[in-house]
């Protein structure tokens, strides 16, 4: 969970007054690395607002994926990804969530060994 902006600001104010990263980190019980990241964030953006990470930027239409797999059962994941305009790992993840298996299985055969 991210620290509040108020807490971050208090921490940076303390650092600016004392000029010692280790002491400030110990006082506020955070790591030196966290404090360095907040200082860099303040320099880059001018704010201490938590950066949001991009996620789910590549949406795949589930029905289009099912249709493509039905039409091209031997297609590799990277080929499906090229068709859908996403990454192969996204295709693999969605195939797994849709419970679509891609393994080719041998037909079952009877055991031909003689019984004693």
From TrEMBL:
InterPro entries in alphabetical order: Homeodomain-like_sf, Transposase_14
Transmembrane segment boundaries: none
Domain Transposase Synechocystis PCC intervals: 1-115
Record-linked Pfam families: HTH_Tnp_IS630 (PF01710)
Protein name per Swiss-Prot or TrEMBL: Transposase
Annotated organism of origin: Neisseria mucosa (strain ATCC 25996 / DSM 4631 / NCTC 10774 / M26)
Lineage of the species this protein comes from: Bacteria, Pseudomonadati, Pseudomonadota, Betaproteobacteria, Neisseriales
């Amino acid at each position: 969970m991210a620290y509040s902006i108020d807490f971050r600001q208090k921490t940076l104010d303390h650092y600016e007054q004392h000029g010692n990263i280790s002491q400030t980190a110990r006082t506020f019980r955070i790591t030196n690395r966290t404090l360095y990241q907040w200082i860099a964030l303040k320099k880059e953006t001018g704010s201490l607002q938590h950066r949001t990470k991009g996620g789910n930027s590549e949406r795949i239409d589930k029905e289009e994926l099912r249709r493509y797999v039905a039409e091209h059962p031997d297609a590799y994941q990277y080929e499906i990804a090229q068709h859908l305009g996403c990454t192969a790992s996204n295709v693999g993840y969605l195939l797994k969530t849709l419970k679509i298996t891609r393994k080719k299985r041998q037909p079952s055969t009877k055991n031909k060994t003689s019984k004693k």
